[in-house]
Amino acid sequence: MFDLDLWREIFQSINKNRTRSLLSGFTVAFAILLFTILFGIANGLNNTFAEAFGTDATNSIVIFPGRTSKAHKGLQAGRRIQFKNEDYDYLLDEFGDKVQYITSKVHRNVNASYKNKKNNYQVRAVHPEYMFIENTQIKDGRYINQNDLNNNVKVAVIGKVVEDDLFLKTNPIGKYINLNGIQYKIVGVFTDDEGYNEENVIYTPLTTAQKLYGNNDYIDLMHLTFNPKLNYNQAISFGNNITKKMKDRFSVARSDQRAIRVQNMAEGTKAVGQMTFGLNVIILVIGFGTLIAGVVGISNIMIFIVKERTKEIGIRKALGASPRSIVSIILIESIIITAIAGYFGLLIGMGVLELVGPSLKTYFIKDPGVSTSLVIGATITLILAGAIAGYLPAKKASRIKPIVALRND
Amino acid sequence: MLKINQLHKSYPIGDSSLHVLKGIDLKVEEGEMVAIMGSSGSGKSTLLNIIGMLDEADSGDYILDGLPIKDLTEKKAAVYRNKFLGFIFQSFNLINYKNALENVALPLYYQGMKRKERQEKALFHLEKVGLADWAQHLPKELSGGQNQRVAIARALAANPKLLLADEPTGALDTKTSHEIMAFIQQLNDEGKTILMVTHEEDIASMCKRVVRLRDGVIMEDKKVEQVRAEQYV
Q1: Among partner residues A9, A311, A322, which is closest to B75 by beta-carbon distance?
Q2: Pairing of β A60-65 and β B16-28
Q3: Can you tell me the ipTM of this complex?
Q4: Hey, are the CB atoms on A317 and B78 less than 8 Å from each other?
Q5: Where is the ABC transporter domain positioned along the sequence (chain B) (predicted)?
Q6: Do A124 and A166 touch, CB atoms closer than 8 A?
Q7: Could you tell me if A314 lies within 8 Å of chain B, comparing CB atoms?
Q8: Cβ–Cβ of A5/B115 closer than 8 Å?
Q9: Domain B30-56+74-232 top-level CATH class
């Protein structure tokens, strides 16, 4: 039931007691403002963090060959280790159940040209699964596929930067790009969240490169991701296992750190995970802290308001106000003030974040912001807290004998 | 109109209790104008508050207009107060952020009357106390006498059976006191039953009956020759 008169009474009370209304409103607005800003900054820190570690798979393991630094089994130090396709097959055979994606890689820097435009780029000759390891997004066309590898097809997938450099506004798909004098048909264009350095790249099928660059089956390095179901310890021991098996396979001393290097992201991932967790705990503490401060503030103000209005309550009761009407007039007033003030706090907080956000980048805070639903949730929490905090003293005030209330000066 | 039988009331003070009313018997007929007198601590205000349902008696009967007032719920007491009683206080007790008209209209609001009707009625009563031109003024913009007249208008607004006045002239100077008393007498002339607490003899002498309390019992209850207040105005 909508009681217009009740609302009139309430708005008159809010309007005529401006200091009181502003004061309680200020507390709420300030709590929400702090909440928004602190939460936003914490989120910004988190964003910086997430960005620093890119969008590459966090479960990847890279295996590099090097030169032996120790003599072993009658072989001299300084021997060069060369991976071949059979090593790739070996890894798959040995660890197939723990591997999610795996690719071999051959790198070359090439002079690329299309018509009269030229530039230098890195070519990465890979297996199709590399797309998932690098988290490459195909913008147009397609990625390298198994068919390309089987038939040593001369196709290329170019990064967006390459497209912009060489093709300007024309569509590169189906065109032929010249890489060190060999024509490759462009079948796809990709983007990468990591930006320029990852989009400044051309992918070709592994076998094509092997055939063209030396007619052999050499591999520069192998890159795999482990099954994400592996926990941290399993992932670490998986990495160690690979190191061990590969060293044995190439007759390298177990203690030789240079011959074969295995870079396991799991080692870093744990640190990142702990840091992110710590950050989230801090965010939660900040959030709850400001909310609790706000709740305490509102509770105090509500108690003060009821105290201040005791005489008015006495008058109203003497004139025939029921206890319920006393409670509702106080409660609704507090809810309206909290809601409006909370909304302003939210607006100001978001405005502040919007304004100073970009300039905070130097302090490792990127895109500070909070989800609207979160702040609205916080505001509703404060409103509820205000209502509960107001209800008890209001209830008490409504029970007070009018004569006692009237005596209150 | 009003019948009180063996009314007792005591207030706890620390461990002991103060026996304020020690068996009051009082009967007030319709149209009477009664002054309740006594020194401070005699229990006169307590008696008025119990009659006004602002306070509750410990024991004894209180029948108002044939209705026994006992064990009232808060809600019921609120309804009775609104319906039967009009209050005039020493300190006016107007709501400071409401203007004269809104203050007068407040008991009508609690009666559930429509806004327009409420305002018309409130204005009518303000006119009656001669303050129609001051309807939009806040209590702080009015003099003490004017405020008390607003309070009287408010007490009259709900058309109560009984007007209760607690030292209505206590905060006013003599001249204004007489104006207010003249007005209250006029209301009584029109038939309103009035019960008033005062400790001023000249104010009591303007009533038709004086009840003297001492130490919680009625010492004296006599009809007096009413002194008209108009002659001093």
Answers
A1: A322
A2: unpaired
A3: 0.89
A4: yes
A5: 2-233
A6: no
A7: yes
A8: yes
A9: alpha beta
